[in-house]
Amino acid sequence: MATQTTTAAPATARGTGRRAGRSTGHVRSERTNWSGTVVLVLCAVTVLLPLYVTVSMAFKTQGQAVDGQAFSLPAPFSVDGFVQAWNLTKFPVGAGISLLVTAGTVVATILLAAFASYAIMRNWDHRLFRYSFYYLLAAMFIPFPVVALPQIQLTGRVGLDNPFGVILLATMFQLSFSVLLFTAFLRSIPDELEESARLDGATTWQTFWRLIFPLLAPMSATVGIFAFLYAWNDFMMPSLIISDPALQTLPVRQNLFQSQFSNNYHVAFASYLMAMAPAIVAYLFTQRWVMEGVTQGAVKG
Amino acid sequence: MTSIVTTGTAAHAAATAPPARRPRRRVEPLYYLLLLPTVVLFTLAITVPGIIGIFFSFTDSIGIGDWSFVGLTNYVAMFSDPAILQSYLFTFGFAVATVLVVNVVAFLLAVGLTSRIRMKTTLRTVFVVPMVISGIIIAYVFNFLFSNSLPAAGAAAGIPWLEISLLANPDLAWVAIVLVTAWQSIPGTMLIYIAGLLSVPGDVYEAADLDGASRVQQLLRITVPLVAGYVVINVILGFKGYLNAYDIIVGLTNGGPGTATRSVAMSIIAGFNGGDYAYQMANATIFFVVAVLISLLQLSLTRTRKAS
Question: d(Cα B111, Cα B216) in Å, to the nearest integer?
């Protein structure tokens, strides 16, 4: 029962940890921390409670939704809220535009940042490339609100007050962080690898696509995840840049329930659920990447 | 667009630089093609609007039509405008409170999730969910809970100050905003702390165990100092992010009651319709200077950490 056993702990803890007293509690890694488990489960409940309310409200009838019992289960079960939300928010259009903005931002961010980072790192001895790196990085100092007003005016003037303008701006705001990640990674790729590809007769363009870009994949995943979460969930930029309400993204369409229809709670929550579900489902399937991506992004950036 | 490399010091440096160590390699044209479109787009999308914004902050423009230069009038007016001062006070207070709440809770959750608990994977999956949900939608859901469920619970429990919505209370609405922002941003912070905690080698704790250090002593004397670098990252990244608070506040209070919870970002944006375009551009310029100062602080802090 001493510290030497810690390496075998995972196997033994399950068997012995269950009923053991607290007297030797300071021996780490020995037994299940039940009090910790209970506290964390309670914390998890506070995370799940708003989500539970969203789901249960969404399946209620209008009558039950306004009875003031937010935490009750839906009875009877109704999909009326979804049907109305689908039509009121023009869900297929909103989802399509959100998808376009998100896919556009993810692809543009990964490609432009990877291109620029590769060019910068391979020509570091040239001033143009070196200064471009610092120039692109400087955007980390500029939050969107600072340049929002002139951007609203400019995008309006050149006909980009639509989802494409949002793709352009969102990509530009993601650039500095992404270039930082890519260049840090490119620095760790040995030159010899690339030289051997050149000796085999590959052009720069071929070397990039066949050798460098595949090697960048883990960083591309990180960059893509950040771009996805930002573009899919953002309210501020699309609400300010896209001038035609018919072309708005899903999060912006939800403000419908703050002004009109403000008492149709079941419709509002059905709509919220439909807007948040795609990101949650995507997260559940890719959670390892998401978690690693966030960690990498913060530690490197 | 490439003015940044051709002007001033760069040209000067080129003229006086010692002969290059090796003959100047010709850059393959493809590299320009890979880099320059991005630099051009970046300049048009961010640099040009930034310069336009600073330019108009010295005018009396209302966004359209004629304008004339007014010098520093906007800046002078800003520093004695109670609405502006209040928005900065609120935004900084909110950011400090949120940083504290988020980092304390996220750190404790990370300690819990890296200890020997049951359902570790499931719990971690659940804790990260808020990170992937849109801030505005989270705010709408909580808006409903704060204005309907919480007052109902307050009435049932006989707590008078809970019977009116937290969001309608000018003194307490900020608490609701801190809570919801924390709810959403704890996961990202927590993941970074988990990475930090996992990087601490296990034998450090074994040695502490042998010396008879208690769990709390180990946490305060070993864990906290060893993850201090992660604390710096989380505090600064978080603070910078919270200063730009917009979505969650719009969804919860829309700046109200009155202007009690109006953030700097919200007052800048309000300048677009409010007719004080130039005035809010001065505000944005000051806000930019604040953001730069904080980023420089971040750079110097992370530099010294890496050096030590």
Answer: 12
CA angle A120, A151, A246 (to 5 degrees): 115
For chain A, how many helices (H) and strands (E)? 16, 0
Say yes or no for a CB contact (<8 Å) between B116 and A234: no
Please state the pTM of the whole predicted model: 0.86
- Distance of alpha carbon B96 from its chain centroid, rounded? 11
ipTM of the complex: 0.86
B16 burial type by CB count under 10 A (0-12 exposed, 13-18 middle, 19+ buried): exposed
Lowest mean pLDDT among A22-36, A178-192, B284-298: A22-36
**Cis omega (within 30 of 0) for bond into B257:** yes
End-to-end CA distance of chain A: 43
Nearest Cα residue to B116 out of A294, A137, A31, A118: A31
For B38, the closest of A27, A116, A131 (CB atoms) is A116
DSSP B229-254: HHHHHHHHHHHHHHHT--HHHHHHTT
**CB contact set of B104 (below 8 Å; sequence gap of 6+):** none
- Asked if B132 lies within 8 A of A152 by C-beta distance, the reply is no
Q: Bridge-partner residues for B69, per DSSP?
A: B59
Of A27, A40, A70, the CB nearest to B145: A70
Pair A166, A242: CB distance under 8 Å: yes
Q: What does the pLDDT profile of chain B (308 residues) look like in tens digits?
A: 333 333 333 444 444 444 445 556 788 899 999 999 999 999 999 999 999 999 999 998 887 778 889 889 899 999 899 999 999 999 999 999 999 999 999 999 999 999 888 888 899 999 999 999 999 999 999 999 998 888 888 888 888 878 888 898 888 999 999 999 999 999 999 999 999 998 888 788 888 888 888 888 888 888 888 888 889 889 988 998 999 999 999 999 998 898 899 999 999 998 877 778 899 999 999 999 998 898 888 778 777 655 54
B26: tokens are: 């010709």
B59 three-state secondary structure: strand
Say whether A295 and B130 touch across the interface (CB within 8 A): no
- Could you tell me if B225 and B274 are in contact, meaning their C-beta atoms sit under 8 angstroms apart? no
- For B278, nearest residue in chain A (alpha carbons): A149
Q: Which of B102, B126, B137 to mutate to test the interface with A (most CBs of A within 10 A)?
A: B137
Task: List the structure tokens of B266.
Answer: 């919200």
Cα–Cα distance between A238 and A148 in angstroms, integer? 11
**pLDDT (mean) for A173-189:** 91
Contact yes or no for B53/B269 (Cβ under 8 A): no
Q: Please state, in angstroms and rounded to a whole number, the distance separating the CA atoms of residues B270 and B265.
A: 9
In B158-276, which ranges are continuous DSSP H helix? 160-163, 173-198, 202-210, 215-218, 224-226, 228-243, 247-252, 264-274
Nearest-angstrom CA–CA distance, B137 and A257: 11
